[in-house]
Amino acid sequence: MLARHFLSHFCQRFGVEAARATPELLARLMSYHWPGNVRELENAIESLVAQSQGDGLDLSLLPGSGVP
Questions:
Q1: How far are the Cα atoms of 12, 15, 17, 22 from residue 63, in angstroms, in the given order?
Q2: For position 46, which CATH number holds?
Q3: Residue 35 within a domain
């Protein structure tokens, strides 16, 4: 629920076409430990929306993706 809320909020804030919370996105979010709790989730989704280019979300931008 929170992930969908943050995704919608940041798409609107950055003027990006509303991205869908795909099963792959939700699985990636659920598999991460989230030591920073809700604030870390919010920041990760904000960064994901702000930095993704093109039509889709770049899931490699998520924490725990192995990309520095």
A1: 22, 23, 23, 17
A2: 1.10.8.60
A3: yes
Asked if the structure places residue 50 within a domain, the reply is: yes
Return the amino acid letter for 14. F
Structure tokens at 6: 């943050």
Q: Is residue 65 part of a domain?
A: no
pTM reported for the whole predicted model: 0.85
Instruction: For 17-63, write each residue's pLDDT tens digit.
Output: 888 888 999 999 999 989 889 999 999 999 999 998 877 898 999 98
Burial 42-51 (b: 16+ CB within 10 A, else e): bebbbebbee
Contact status, residue 41 vs residue 6, Cβ threshold 8 Å: yes
Q: DSSP code of 18?
A: P
